[in-house]
Amino acid sequence: MARMTTVSPGRHRAKVRSSVDEALAPLFDGARIMVGGFGLCGNAEALIAGVVKRGVRDLTLISNNAGNLGKGLNAWLEAGIVRRFIGSYIGTNEALHRAMAAGTVEVEIVPQGTFVERMRAAGAGIPAFYTPTGVGTVVAEGKDTRDFDGRTYVMERALPADFALIRARRADAFGNARFWRTARNFSPIMASAAKQTIVECDEIVPLGAIDPDDVHLPGIFVHHVLEVREHEDPFEYRTVRKRSA
């Protein structure tokens, strides 16, 4: 049986933050912030709330959606700190609909696959790429198009950010992280595309406690780690089958 070894934390403890305020200290007005999560699944709840408390404004929010049912990133909209939203889903977020109608938040809707690829390109140092998604629609307006092998493609630019706020199940002091099933969603890609990544995890474990094969996000992409034990983890829409007789 393989033997697990632990590594002395040493200098890697420098990434561990003792509070939300300390973890969010680098934030600044006008920042471009990526936030992991799909709907309310995988939200960095403490960091999201902490951004409002921090008082930064004029943010560009880059996330699949901007919260829902009055929860999650909806708090940023209600606080009026978002200037621009880039994402792939609006849905039933009434706060975002109101902000769009009032012209207080600029909204850029991106096809979900393109959204992910733009972030992946930023993390890989690729400035742009061509995709057939959106050709002939408003998505392609004002963008360069080219034909390859008889098919038209539209050019999409990479999507980088200043910060990524993500939620993990476990992380060690170096930032190696493992997510809980579908709560992983966009988070590893966002971490690679941001200049600084802040990980909110349910539990900080010793170095070496996460098997290398189980590391979903390598710590090289992580700059700040914060342990938060308590989360609401709300359901958006609970759907269950009726019990059989």
Provide keyphrases for this structure.
single chain; 245 residues; alpha/beta; Glutaconate Coenzyme A-transferase; 3-stranded antiparallel sheet; 6 helices; 20% helix; disordered N terminus
Distinct helical segment count: 6
CATH superfamily of the domain at 28-109 and 160-227: Glutaconate Coenzyme A-transferase
Total strand segments: 12
Range of helix content: 10-25%
Question: Which structural category do the helix and sheet elements fall into?
Answer: alpha/beta
User: Rough shape?
Assistant: globular
Mean pLDDT, to the nearest integer, reads: 93
The main β sheet shows up as: 9 strands, mixed
Low-confidence stretches: 1-9
H and E string: EHEHEHEHEHEEEEEHEE
Assigned CATH class of the domain at 28-109 and 160-227: Alpha Beta
GO molecular function: CoA-transferase activity
Organism: Sandaracinus amylolyticus
Protein name: Succinyl-CoA 3-ketoacid-coenzyme A transferase subunit A
Keywords: Transferase
Commentary on this structure:
The chain has 245 residues and is of the alpha/beta class. It has a domain at 28-109 and 160-227: Glutaconate Coenzyme A-transferase (3-Layer(aba) Sandwich), CATH 3.40.1080. The protein is 20% helix and 27% strand. Strand 9 and strand 10 (177-178) form a beta hairpin.
In short:
The chain has helices at residues 20-23, 45-54, 74-79, 94-102, 112-124, 187-193, and strands spanning 16-17, 32-35, 59-62, 82-87, 106-109, 128-131, 145-148, 151-157, 161-172, 177-178, 194-205, 224-227. The protein has 245 residues and is of the alpha/beta class.
